[in-house]
Amino acid sequence: MVSVREGGLWLLTLRGSVTQEGIPVDSLHLLPGVVFELCSGVRLRVRGIQVDPRLNSAGVTLQPSLRHERLDIVASYDSVQLHTRVKTIRVVGRPAQVLTQLAEFGCPVEWWRVAEALWGRDVDRTVLRRRWDRVLSLLRARLAVAGIRPNLVASDGKGLVELLRYPGDSITIESL
After folding, report:
1. How far is CA 155 from the centre of its chain?
2. What are the two backbone dihedrals, phi and then psi, of residue 64, each rounded to the nearest 5 degrees?
3. What is the CATH class of 64-168?
4. Which residues contact 30 (CB under 8 A, 6 or more apart)?
5. Partners of 37 in beta bridges
6. Confidence of residue 20 (pLDDT cuts 50, 70, 90)
7. What is the pLDDT of residues 26-57, one digit of tens each?
8. The model's pTM
């Protein structure tokens, strides 16, 4: 586990780690030049690089303070409000409908069940998948730009999708 401590230092916590001198440690400050060995024999050397902390790997500007913060979600089918401690993000249209459907299901569900709820059962599965992927991409981009945690809408890679709730999150469904 890597965490930030006071003073902006990074701290790596690994059970069974040893320093370069062979001293066992439970945690180690990650300063450039530090070398440590995992119990598996893998040696890691810390390197310092300068990055803009507002950018993620995709180059999207984020607001880190919102990424893992408690969310109060109010789903009203065509409009969903995501309330954080500092602001409210509004999602509308099909992306909001996806969030509302996932909130109503309340558990992991096959993607096509949500898609059928939005576009109907008589739509060809290939067309349904294309629409689903497009809307999910729009939704995730909207959440990323707003700084909302990227796994709010979580997929398991096997066809299941869910609205992933963290401790403290709340969901209110106000749709018909």
Report:
1. 11
2. -55, -30
3. mainly alpha
4. 2, 9, 10, 11, 12, 46
5. 18, 43
6. low
7. 555 556 666 656 555 566 666 655 545 544 44
8. 0.62
